[in-house]
Write a structure and sequence with these properties.
heterodimer; A: mainly alpha; B: alpha+beta; six-stranded mixed sheet; 8 helices
Chain lengths: 294, 364
């Protein structure tokens, strides 16, 4: 800190320090604290605010645990977010390895452009696009019928299928890039050395490449899981009658019931429970936080 | 235990660039063979062709008489020690060494026993459970050698593994490598740009330049009887004279220079009338005398002295401004030459050799 002030002078240093501090405190910590305060108070008509019944309690949190439907939706959200994370991992690892170690270096920018351009389109538009692609009389069914793979149209958006397809498409790059970075940092000579010592391809991956890219895999999994569990647009647009996402419940409390207090409690529960789940998984898979921060 | 390696008219192209041209050589079983040359001469390409990471564009690599075309690196009886060693940083020392065994499905106890046996061979007794990052440069070197030996290769390939070490350790490891090679009797193919390493360790040396093998021979052959100008100047120092061959007779000839005619040996392919050939004399075979005309002599003036301990490098200049180096033994009792003194640099006809230019690639 002192070094920064010595090197850049007081004004610039204060600015450099103040900007992230403002971002962190005013735009992240403060809103969360307000939400947290909301979540502890009861939902009251306007004229009773500050009145004798406006006291702190955990009743809003209790609402969640007593509603078996909401608990079930929460676990389904965690489960299908985990499935989305797993699918993203299975898709990303080979692609990341290909770009990092197999593709010719002069083709890499082109590959990145192809991967990144869809990310420039907003999430809402992409979800709508998938909705159209996957719809019962949509282009995907038309093509599959046209080339004779299916004889009749297939209902794609059923159960959690539509949501999972949408989430995988939306967040797969958040898995790809950390893994790509990790694999790219691996000295290619180690791969060659393993091959030279007689290892077949899958053992090279299992013993050398995957252990090396574990931090990237872990941070990709955390990101995709948290983003999926916290996503609202994709689960709303690609939903079927059977697929309710926990964020939709939060939205319902806040905007349909106008009960921000219970909604805040649910939002906090989502944050805390997902963080606990991630921590537990990291413990089980023996990944430390410093590995992810690399 | 070991196998011979035959490079049969091997060429390698990368796009339009020909990295190796028509190398044809047999490396004997149990031999310590070095490819010596500057960076970019194609020696690493040769090593990668033998190890199986690349297949030659033309010709064939044969190990133990068996063609290796289409056989991948993990199926060949060779093992490569990389320049940066490429040890696996996430595994302890013993797992590094036993990696090759573990991928072959050898059980854990045998792996561990073999790793410890090899650690004793390379003189690293209690390092089995250490992390790679805890080892010094020389220790990492030994682990790399042990890891390579663990898979009992028929041919060991070494890609300048000593270049990252400091001088003292490098000299020590030279002797060690040589000893390990003799003990295990594995064919060693070593590549280096360091002539000292190549000469000190090898049974035979192949000198390379621009993808072409210039000369193959024992270290003594390479140093004492270089085949052409490239070999002479890459291996050791020389005083060089331009001129032309004016007479040739039973291996010797008269070479006419600006300083008169010198009698010297004629190198391979050098004939009467050759004008591109040059005369090479080693500094340690040149002598400085006070005036004594006649024979192979150039009048010079002493410029400066560099004291090297057991010998002294005397830098001299002839009257046309060319510099010549003469190496004289350090004689604490005798009187030394003084800068500015006029002397004659001379050499025996057997110590001067007229050599043609380096072999060139035929294709671009």
């Amino acid at each position: 800190m002192r070094e920064i002030f010595r090197r850049y002078g007081t004004t610039l240093s204060a600015f450099i320090v103040a900007l992230p501090a403002f971002w962190l405190l005013a735009l992240v910590v403060l809103p969360y604290m307000i939400l947290f305060e909301y979540s502890l108070r009861p939902y009251l008509p306007f004229d009773q605010l500050g009145g004798p019944s406006d006291v702190y309690s955990l009743n809003n949190y209790w609402t969640f645990f007593t509603s078996s439907i909401h608990v079930k939706i929460f676990f389904l959200t965690v489960f299908f977010s985990s499935v989305v994370t797993a699918i993203c991992l299975v898709l990303s690892y080979p692609l990341a390895f290909f770009i990092a170690k197999v593709a010719k270096p002069h083709n890499v920018p082109t590959l990145f452009a192809i991967l990144l351009i869809p990310l420039w389109v907003s999430e809402i538009l992409r979800s709508f696009a998938w909705f159209i692609v996957l719809s019962y009389h949509g282009p995907l069914n038309a093509i599959l019928e046209g080339i004779g793979i299916f004889s009749g149209p297939v209902r794609w958006i059923t159960g959690f299928n539509g949501v999972m397809i949408g989430l995988v498409y939306t967040y797969v790059l958040f898995m790809l890039f950390p893994i790509y970075n990790a694999i790219q940092a691996l000295d290619s000579h180690q791969i060659e050395a393993a091959e030279d010592l007689g290892a077949p391809a899958w053992k090279i991956h299992w013993r050398i490449v995957i252990p090396h890219s574990k931090p990237g895999i872990a941070s990709g999994c955390v990101m995709v899981f948290m983003l999926s569990a916290g996503s609202i647009i994709v689960p709303s647009l690609l939903a079927s009658p059977g697929s309710r996402w926990f964020t939709e419940v939060v939205q319902q409390w806040m905007f349909e019931s106008q009960d921000w207090n219970t909604g805040s409690a649910y939002a906090f529960l989502l944050l805390v429970l997902c963080t606990s789940f991630v921590t537990l998984m990291m413990r089980l898979l023996n990944v430390r936080l410093v590995d992810i921060a690399k | 235990m070991s196998e011979d390696v035959k490079l049969a008219n091997v060429s390698m192209d990368f796009g339009k660039f020909r990295a190796v041209e028509n190398v044809d050589i047999t490396i004997k079983a149990g031999e310590f063979f070095s490819f010596l040359g500057p960076s970019g001469c194609g020696k690493t390409t040769i090593l990668r062709m033998i190890s199986g990471f690349i297949d030659p564009t033309e010709g064939d690599v044969l190990i133990g008489g068996k063609s290796m075309r289409g056989i991948r690196a993990n199926q060949r009886p060779t093992v490569l020690i990389f320049q940066n060693l490429a040890l696996f940083p996430l595994m302890p020392v013993w797992q590094n060494i036993s990696f090759g065994l573990s991928v072959r499905g050898v059980d854990k106890a045998t792996q561990r026993a073999k790793a410890e046996e090899l650690l004793r061979l390379v003189d690293l007794h209690d390092a089995a459970d250490k992390a790679i990052s805890q080892l010094s440069g020389g220790q990492k070197q030994r682990v790399a050698i042990a890891r390579a030996l663990a898979v009992e290769p028929k041919v060991m390939l070494l890609d300048e593994p000593l270049s990252a070490l400091d001088l003292k350790l490098r000299q020590h490891m030279r002797a060690e490598l040589r000893a390990i090679q003799k003990r295990t009797n594995v064919t060693f193919i070593y590549i280096t740009h360091d002539q000292g390493e190549a000469l000190a360790m090898s049974d035979r040396v192949g000198v390379m330049s621009n993808g072409v093998l210039q000369q193959v021979g024992t270290p003594q052959d390479i140093y004492n009887h270089p085949a052409n100008a490239f070999v002479a100047s890459f291996v050791g120092e020389n005083n060089v004279f331009a001129g032309k061959v004016v007479s040739a007779e039973s291996g010797f000839g008269q070479f006419e220079t600006e300083f008169g005619r010198f009698k010297a040996r004629l190198g391979p392919g050098v004939n009467l009338g050759s004008t591109t050939a040059k005369l090479y004399v080693r500094p340690e075979r040149s002598t400085l005398n006070p005036a004594q005309p006649g024979g192979n002599e150039v009048p010079v003036e002493v410029m400066s002295l560099t004291f090297e301990g057991n010998f002294i490098n005397v830098l001299t200049r002839d009257d046309r401004g060319y510099l010549h180096m003469v190496q004289v033994q350090n004689d604490p009792g005798g009187k030394s030459v003084a800068p500015g003194s006029k002397m004659r640099m001379s050499f025996q006809p057997t110590d001067g050799v007229v050599l043609g230019e380096a072999l060139q690639r035929k294709s671009a």
